[in-house]
Specification:
By secondary structure, the chain is an all-alpha fold. It is about 55% helix and about 0% strand. It has helices at about 15-25, 25-30, 35-55, 70-90.
């Protein structure tokens, strides 16, 4: 006897953003990196991009010219990269590298 559990992405942009914010982004995460006025909107933008890619997958070749799943681990890696960039720029007193992010 076996039980199979699958995690389907939610349907719709609102549901996708809601799931991302409920599972990955919490108040402590939003207070993690300073300056907050740059960190919070950038976090929202990456979560929004994640939801868009997840939603467009269901359209197949019409959605994007090349299939790519921007899954939860990619979102984690993106957030970690942004956090490290913000932290290293703050420590070394450099400008933020917006092109790299």
């Amino acid at each position: 006897m076996a039980i199979k559990v699958t995690m389907e992405p939610p349907s719709g942009m609102k549901a996708g953003l809601n799931k991302t914010y409920n599972t990955m982004v919490n108040p402590d995460f939003l207070e993690k990196v300073e300056p907050y006025e740059k960190w919070r909107p950038l976090t929202y933008a990456v979560c929004f991009l994640h939801s868009v890619v997840q939603e467009r997958r269901k359209f197949g070749p019409i959605g994007f010219s090349m299939p790519y799943e921007f899954n939860s681990s990619d979102l984690d890696a993106s957030m970690l990269y942004m956090e490290k960039q913000f932290t290293s720029c703050a420590i070394t007193n450099r400008k933020y590298e917006w092109d790299a992010m």
